[in-house]
C-alpha cells in the first residue's frame, strides 16, 4: 500500500510540475493581484479558470492528500536504526582453572582403547592330548 501511494505521489508531483510550467504567466504577481485586473487573472473581470489551472488545483489537492497519507502510514512503522540492533550480551568465559584442576589435567593420561587381538578358537581350547 505504501509503495503504491509513494509511486502515485511521485507521478502527481511530476504532473504538477508540468502543469505549473504550462500555465500562462501574463498575470502580474500571485493570483493576478499585481495592480492590473486583466481577464487572465484568477480574480479578474471574468474570474474564469482555464483547464490547466483547474487541473493544477486538483493535482495540488491530490499531492497534499498523498503527502499526508504517506506521513501517517510511515510514522507508525518507522523505527530507529538502534531499535533493530540485537541486544548486547556479556561474553561468557570459562571459569579460571584452579591449581587442583591444573594438577589433575597434567597427570591425567588420555584413555586410548588398546587393540586386543582377536581370540581364535584354537587358542581358547585346550591343547589336544595324544
Describe this protein's structure.
With 130 residues, the protein is mainly α. It has a domain at 1-22 and 48-78. It has four helices and no strands. The radius of gyration is 44 Å and the shape is rod-shaped. The termini are far apart. The mean pLDDT is 73.
| Class inferred from helices and paired strands | mainly alpha
Mean of the pLDDT scores? Answer: 73
* Rg (CA only): 44 Å
Beta-strand fraction estimate: under 5%
- In N-to-C order, the SSE pattern is HHHH
* Total DSSP helices: 4
Helix content: 40-55%
How widely separated are the two ends?
102 Å
Oligomer: single chain
Low-pLDDT sequence parts: none
Features:
4 helices; 130 residues; mainly alpha
Short description:
Helix content is 46%, strand content 0%. It is mostly helical.
Topology, element by element:
Layout: H1 2-21, H2 51-77, H3 99-107, H4 121-124
Helix pairs in contact: 1-2
